[in-house]
């Protein structure tokens, strides 16, 4: 899976994990806060994070500008199933 995504200002996506998919996020513009297994980091343009299968993660845009990011998912199993928490 490859997605060019937009995280709107002051928005987030739900905490979730993937049973059998590794996910990579690359910030294209602006910044976002990434939380992985309750560890919080601010990512800025060009920063990359790798999320392993079963790691609970969430991205939050706490700014007044939209954030563009690239999401790449590599499924090890058959579906890359997403579980919201």
CATH architecture heading: Sandwich
What is the chain-wise order of helices and strands? EEEEEEEEE
Measured distance between first and last alpha carbons: 21 Å
CATH fold annotation: Jelly Rolls
Mind sketching the topology for me?
Elements (H helix, E strand, L loop, with lengths): L1 E6 L8 E3 L2 E9 L1 E6 L2 E6 L3 E4 L5 E4 L6 E9 L6 E3 L1
Antiparallel strand pairs: 1-8, 2-9, 3-6, 3-8, 4-5, 4-7
Description:
It is a single chain. This protein is mostly beta strands. It has one domain (2-84): Jelly Rolls. Helices cover 0% and strands 59% of the residues. The strands form three sheets. The chain has a four-stranded antiparallel β-sheet with strand order 1-8-3-6, with no helix packed on it. It has a three-stranded antiparallel β-sheet with strand order 5-4-7, with no helix packed on it. Strands 2-9 form a two-stranded antiparallel sheet. The two termini are 21 Å apart. The relative contact order is 0.43. The mean pLDDT is 95.
Task: Give a short synopsis of this structure.
This protein is mostly beta strands. The protein has strands spanning 2-7, 16-18, 21-29, 31-36, 39-44, 48-51, 57-60, 67-75, 82-84. Strand 4 and strand 5 form a beta hairpin.
Key words describing this protein structure:
single chain; 0% helix; globular; mainly beta; 85 residues; three-stranded antiparallel β-sheet; Jelly Rolls; four-stranded antiparallel β-sheet
């Amino acid at each position: 899976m490859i997605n060019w995504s937009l995280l709107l200002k002051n928005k987030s996506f739900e905490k979730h994990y993937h049973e059998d998919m590794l996910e990579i996020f690359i910030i294209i513009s602006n910044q976002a806060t990434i939380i992985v297994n309750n560890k919080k980091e601010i990512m800025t343009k060009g920063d990359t994070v790798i999320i392993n299968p079963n790691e609970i993660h969430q991205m939050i845009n706490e700014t007044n500008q939209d954030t563009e990011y690239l999401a790449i998912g590599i499924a090890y199993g058959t579906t890359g199933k997403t579980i919201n928490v």
